[in-house]
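Problem: given the chain below (76 residues), write out its structure.
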Amino acid sequence: MYEQVTVWHQNDPALFFIFLLALLVIHFIPSFVAFSRKHSSRMLILILNLLMGWTVLGWALLLYWAAKGKTDGLLV
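Solution.
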């Protein structure tokens, strides 16, 4: 009688893969910012991003740190 509507269809794994890839890119934005700015603590930011970046507060703090922290040398 009623058809259940779902976002993910079993026959479309590509859409699910694209969604997961987008989530990973968003998750690692603080690390991308740190490496692109040549942040002096970029490896620590990457490690912390892996460990606590999944929390909203941790992700926001890491993004702030990556954007506002000290950098190695000139920004190009």
